[in-house]
Amino acid sequence: MSEVRTGIGLWLSRHMSPKHAMAQTRAMEATGQIDQFVLWDQLTSWWPQKLWEPSITPLAGLVPDVDSSPDPFVASAFGLSAAEKLGFAICTDASRRDPPELAQMMLTLALATEGRGSLCLGAGEVRHIAPFGRNRALGLKRLEDSLQILQFLLKGKDVGNFDGKVWQLRDAWIGNGGKEKMPEVIAMGGGPRLTEMALKYADGFSTGAPFVYGSAEKYGEQVQTLKRGLVDLGRDPQAFTFGLHHILFLCKNKDEFEQYLDNPLLKWYAATGGRLNMRDWEPEGIAPVMPLDWHYAFNMMPNSMTRAEIDAIVAKVTPEMVRKTFFYGSPADIAAQVKPYVTAGATLNLLADLSPLMVPTDPLASIEQLAEVCRLVKAH
Length: 380
Known about the structure:
- This protein has helices at 20-31, 72-80, 99-110, 126-129, 139-155, 192-201, 216-232, 254-257, 264-273, 296-299, 307-315, 319-325, 331-343, 363-378; strands spanning 5-9, 36-40, 87-93, 117-122, 160-163, 168-172, 184-188, 204-209, 241-250, 327-329, 348-353.
- The protein is built from 14 helices and eleven strands.
- The protein is of the alpha/beta class.
- The N and C termini lie close together (11 Å).
- Strand 7, helix 6 and strand 8 form a beta-alpha-beta unit.
């Protein structure tokens, strides 16, 4: 098996200084168990602002709104300034970020650490695009071009041309500085067209658990299919990153999680993102709340909905749906749920812990617990 890496998210808001990233990355590096910190590029939060109130989450009393996310590239620079060996992963999309600037930013950041730099790039989600006057319909075309242009700009040694579906490059080059610390470019998402792009043009492919793959067995089947595709293309599967974003809820034990099952924020997440493909609920004996043809990337506009519409969705979510949305419990409980996916082939495991929504915690204390998850996940 290829080297297994782990990463955990930075908890930041624009209601605080980006310098808060520095204490977190310093603490992550000190654990010796966390390989990369992670930042997701959000313009609009997954959660509706209309649910952001102290009666639902204690965080609302500390952070006035849920949509003030920091720029991930700027925040990463602050985080990297406090660590020497910690790597980083930035998750963004090709609909809002153009490939030349992405290449420039990733090469710049990668030089600041001995760790690995990862760019997880998707086609884009409508909540970040439509409210700001952009066109989501070009997402896959932009992604296909972007993956190819990034390979050309990051790995090419001279000027060159590119004729794509969106961009035409002529005598393009961004110089060779920093290329000794080459970041990896990972296609992020799902579907046959995006998967094909990943196999042809990316350094890896990332998806999620349990929200895409509810069982490690099904994920393992996908990994084997991808590896056969790589071999058919003349590529080495051992040099390819198989990434998973794991959705966690860290608490003392599994029983403690039961008290949060009726919380509107967790129920909203379960309804809209517990399984991205709504049909995937059916084999698990659960009726999806959203229509079968509904997908968050194309349909979710949380700030365009009324409170009545949001409440109607939340009211339909069952406790069992919430349980199946998260890997939850103690560090040992969570590691036991994640480890089968590692055995099935996941080499980059990015952990997103949503428990601070319910349980205000010192981020540095959470890092210690998540580091234990990472240690157990990587243990042979």
